[in-house]
Amino acid sequence: MTRVPPAHGHRPALRDSTGSASGPGVEPGARPRLSAEDLLAARDALAPFGRLSRQEPIEWAAEEPLAPDLADFYRYVGPEWLEIDTLGLPVMFFPLDRLWDEQAGYRWNHRTGALLVDWNEDWTVVAKQGADPFIHAASTGQVLMAPGDEGWEDRLDEPRPVFRDLTEMIRALAAVGTAWARFDDPFTADWHLTEEVTAAVVAGLEEVLGAHDRAVDLARALGYLRAV
After folding, report:
1. What percent of the chain has a predicted confidence (pLDDT) above 90?
2. Mean pLDDT score of the chain, rounded to an integer?
3. Where is the segment annotated Disordered (predicted)?
4. Which of 45, 128, 139, 221 could form a disulfide with 28 if both were Cys (CB 3.0 to 4.6 A apart)?
5. 14: pLDDT strictly greater than 60
6. Chain-centroid distance, C-alpha 105
7. How far, CA to CA in Å, does 212 sit from each of 63, 171, 201, 222, 227?
8. Long-range contacts from 27-34, C-beta under 8 angstroms, 24+ separation
9. Domain-by-domain residue ranges, the chain?
10. Which letter does DSSP use for residue 189 in this model?
11. Of 168, 172, 189, nearest to 180 (Cα)?
């Protein structure tokens, strides 16, 4: 099992806080940018899992402008190729210069190149667990999930907001990875996940999200189906 590796890199100097991150119900365009405090907390949470570096919007390989939250995220948190181990497949993050390529299969069909009509132009895939995307919505700042077994085009449910912003997503997923890495053998003799692992994941999520019901819902969405 992959253990949590040592942290890489140094924290960059941040601008002064421009306000706290948004939550559900905030009108598009009325919300403040991600705060310096939240960005630093996200960087600290993500650092043990891989290399981080300052990445500027010029590295974004698309004609469409990079969302301001994503610009701040890559400038001050800056994941490169990075994985967080958890139950099933790891959650994968990508460097900014490859992020546009990772929209294939979501924004457009990766075989034909045709744009997918059910993809919102406001959305950007910022991480994946297998084929399941974590989607940043530029107008609200929220991160959506659409878990399923058949991939985006064959999904059964529409994406739903799960995180209030990118920094909450990072801290929550890092909490899951940290809890998972604590256990050398997370399974029972008959290959069921132990109650201790599930409880540790829920506890880590609750510390980040601040609500037990949100922690349980997210744990189940990430495959910890017996979370209570």
Report:
1. 77
2. 88
3. 1-32
4. 139
5. no
6. 18
7. 41, 16, 11, 15, 10
8. 28/139, 28/140, 29/139, 31/140, 31/141, 33/68, 33/69, 33/72, 34/69, 34/72, 34/73, 34/141, 34/165, 34/166, 34/167
9. 36-221
10. T
11. 172
- Judged against a pLDDT cut of 80, whether residue 167 lies above it is answered with yes
pLDDT tens for 129-144 read 999 999 999 999 999 9
Mean pLDDT, residues 6-10 taken together: 43
- Distance, CA of 71 to CA of 58 (rounded, Å): 10
Q: What is the pTM of this model?
A: 0.86
Angstrom CA distances, 69 to 167, 190, 207, stand at 10, 44, 24
- Nearest alpha-carbon partner for 33 in 17, 54, 12, 53: 17
| Tokens, residue 227 | 């979370």
Contacts of 181 (CB under 8 A, 6+ apart): 1, 2, 3, 4, 85
* Residue 141, H or E segment: none
